[in-house]
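call fold target=HAD family phosphatase
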Amino acid sequence: MVISTAPVQEDWDDLCRATGLDLQPPSSPYWAGRHGFDAGDLSPEAYWSGVLGHPAAENEVELLESLDAALWARMNPATLDVLHSLSNEGAQLALLSNMPAGMSRRFEAAETWPGYFYRRYFSGRLGMAKPDPRIFKHVLADLQAAPENVVFIDDNPANIQAAEALGIRVVLHTEDTDLRQELDLLADPA
């Protein structure tokens, strides 16, 4: 929830109407298998069947995939402004996101924000997810970047800790984070 905002109740309600289940609580079946889905360990059919508690039909999967993407499609305008500015300044931006493969393809095809990033790494396509150190090592190797030359921004403290343990500079993003200010401080620590 750096580029996007937290899902709104209306989107959870749409998912509830489609499934007959309240999937918002952290104890719900939506979250129980989510890490495996994000990491590419579960197909959409397997994930949604687990959520529903019965085999999901193809048309159900298509609908639920669409509603799931809508949960995460509300963009954070402050972050988009920073991305636009950084892109105009020539910054090399890369994205590392825990996201199922299908959702990542949907966003790349339909949204403009992926265009800010010259490299995009989606957990569902890589077969591993944050906070697994392997995913950070993969990104660093692919970027041919030293950890100290990378700034990782994330809203999850576990992901921040994993990146920091590898020597990557970090920004923990919250609703109150002034991202531009945080990046300026990292650029000029004096």
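return ok
The chain has a mean pLDDT of 96. DSSP finds eleven helices and four strands in the chain.
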